[in-house]
Amino acid sequence: MKKLKTKKIKFSKISEKLFDPKANKGDNHLAEITHFLQSDTEEKNFSKKPLKNYLNGLTETIAAEDYYQYDLDIKWDIPFPPPLSPKFEFIDLFAGIGGFRLAMQKLGGKCVFTSEWDREAQKTYRANFGEVPFGDITQKETKDSIPKGFDVLCAGFPCQAFSIAGKRAGFKDTRGTLFFDVAEIIKKHKPKAIFLENVKGLRNHDKGNTLKTILSVLRNDLGYFVPEPQILNAKDFGVPQNRERIFIVGFRKDLKITGFTYPKPIKEKKIFLDIREKDPVATRYYLSTQYLKTLKDHKARHANKGNGFGYEMIPDDGTANAVVCGGMGRERNLVFDHRITNFTPETKIKGMVNREGVRKMTPREWARLQGFPDDFKIVVADASAYKQFGNSVAVPAIQATASKILSLLK
Ligand SMILES: C[S@@+](CC[C@H](N)C(=O)[O-])C[C@H]1O[C@@H](n2cnc3c(N)ncnc32)[C@H](O)[C@@H]1O
Fold it and tell me: How many angstroms separate the Cα of 350 from the Cα of each of 127, 288, 347, 355?
């Protein structure tokens, strides 16, 4: 392609216009544009057409034709820009807010395709990575946007993915599940390696048959070397969170990789105080006197029933329970924090803040429990942020495993 003079332009300048709701023309519109901006060769699938249409309205800011040059020099003023000299390429499926992406980028990888249909998660993703994920991965047109030739497929597919129960013959019988979509993408693109993450419960789902089917599809139908999956705990990789997840890795058979060792726990153990917010947090994170009483009463009533209901107090030197979205998710990790500064007579008298200093962890603390660095932007309301971090992966455990995968690919 003919090169025009390159023009240095800040991504924030483009994104001001790009992310104006009026400019959004449908589902994958922004995904196509932002993927195009980050793709650097003509081989990529992303069409220039939506970009061209879009940019026609913007010519007063930037000359539209500049964008058609693959050497356009964008200054990526976002926290996690694409690497300048990538060592490998990966795709990020069921991307959430990009836990996999953070880990893979840190290891020198370039994300060439991402899919996540939740709008709020997409907001967080684009604020941090400058890219809007494509939507529903079960749709043909979404799958058709995946470029050829990437090295690693990453997918933390949702646990609702399994209704394989009863039929367990192979690939076709997983149809209708999200695993089927992952398998279809593997079949078409044959990446060198695959890296899947899921809830620990996958191991015993349908008496172990679901996992058996998944492994059989990967090994027998798709031709991958897949070592025995392993359960890793986030707390063994430098975050104070007791979160066990199943990790499944695989290598294309022609690479002749015949062994894989999962990462060993690191020595350094973290405690809640290591990730506590530095400054006192807003009163909204403190429980009201009434709510705390309700929780205590409820717990007392259920104490002997052994159903594990209720809040839990995490000591300063303790490890948090797994952060999860929904239900009593936030109450499972209550802490004492007496540093409250705006404990005004009003908040005290009205009982808006309990006197014991019991509060929930903040979204930033949840981010840290999952190993997200502090420059990771939280741009959504608290309720969405908790959901997003609860849904996400523990980045350090992912990174440690990915690093083992990559060492074999070299
Ligand atoms: C368990 S979460 C994975 C989170 C991600 N690994 C992270 O680090 O944030 C699964 C995600 O899959 C998304 N999802 C579910 N079905 C989808 C579909 N058909 N197409 C695209 N995304 C989907 C959900 O919105 C959810 O965010």
Answer: 38, 9, 5, 11
List, chain by chain if needed, residues with CB within 6 Å of any ligand 1 atom.
94-97, 99-100, 115-118, 121, 136-138, 156, 158, 178, 391-393
Residue nearest to atom 18 of ligand 1 (CA): 136
Do 17 and 94 reside in the same domain of the chain?
A: yes
3-class SS of residue 134: strand
Residues 6+ apart with CB under 8 A from 105: 80, 82, 83, 111
Q: Output the DSSP codes for 187-217.
A: HHH--SEEEEEEEGGGGTGGGGHHHHHHHHI
Instruction: Look at residue 68 in the predicted model and tell me its pLDDT.
Output: 47
pLDDT in tens, 214-236: 999 999 999 999 999 999 999 99
Residues 327 and 399 in one domain: no
Statement to judge: residues 404 and 261 lie in one domain = yes
283 and 233 share one domain? no
Cα 116 to averaged position of ligand 1 atoms, centre (Å) = 5
Q: Residue 142 is part of which domain span? A: 9-265+392-409
In a domain, 123, yes or no: yes
pTM: 0.90
Let me know if residue 377 belongs to a domain.
Answer: no
Q: How many domains does the chain have?
A: 2
Residues 357 and 403 in one domain: no
The answer as to whether 42 is a domain residue is: yes
Pocket test for ligand 1, best of 91, 94, 114, 323 (most atoms within 8 A of CB): 94
| Closest ligand 1 atom number to CA of residue 156 | 6
Q: Determine which residue's CA is closest to atom 10 belonging to ligand 1.
A: 158
pLDDT in tens, 19-64: 766 655 566 878 887 887 887 655 445 555 555 555 555 444 444 4
Q: Clarify whether 159 is annotated catalytic.
A: yes
Q: Distance, CA 32 to ligand 1 centroid (Å)?
A: 19
What's the gap in Å between 324 CA and the centre of ligand 1?
Answer: 14
**pLDDT tens digits, 61-106:** 444 444 444 445 678 899 999 998 999 999 999 999 999 999 999 9
Count Cβ atoms below 10 Å from residue 241 Cβ, excluding itself: 25
CATH number at residue 250: 3.40.50.150
E-strand ranges in 27-108 read 74-75, 88-93
User: 159 and 253: one domain?
Assistant: yes
Distance from the alpha carbon of residue 163 to the mean position of ligand 1, in angstroms: 17
Do 86 and 45 have their domain in common?
yes
